[in-house]
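tool_call: predict_structure(chain=1)
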Amino acid sequence: MEHIIAKLLHDFEQGKMTRRQLIQSLALASAAAGAAAPAPAAEGRGFKTVTVNHISYQVADYTKTRDFYADLMGMKVSHDDGKQCYLSFGDSFLLARNGRAGATLPRVDHMAYTIEDWDKNAVEAELKRRGLTPRPDTEDSFHVTDPDGFNLQISGRNMKA
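tool_result:
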């Protein structure tokens, strides 16, 4: 699944697909992954990912993105604070937010994956054992940098962004 997402992001960044195609492809990949029976994680081999928690997406005007995905894709709008909002679909959501000053837009800020059996201390210990530097975000999530420099968020089932 990570290979598929990496390929989609690469294609988007290279201009080979539109923002709309990227989000549609990510939504389809997420739905397909959720429908497949997850394989058990090998002992001592990391975490068991159960779903894409959310996709954080920076745009020039989040209201245009909000209205587009709510209207076209039927995503439910919530947590709209005038700078960002959640666009829910299935067990996941797109977090559309106004981009930071000077950022190249639009861009995927990060992907968050939900893992089974969240234990904050155990997750942090495993990330450190692997030479990663976990950055706490919420009580139920950490950010790390993957081998390609991408911001990866690992979260528990109760994580609220």
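agent: The longest strand covers residues 49-59. Proceeding to next step.
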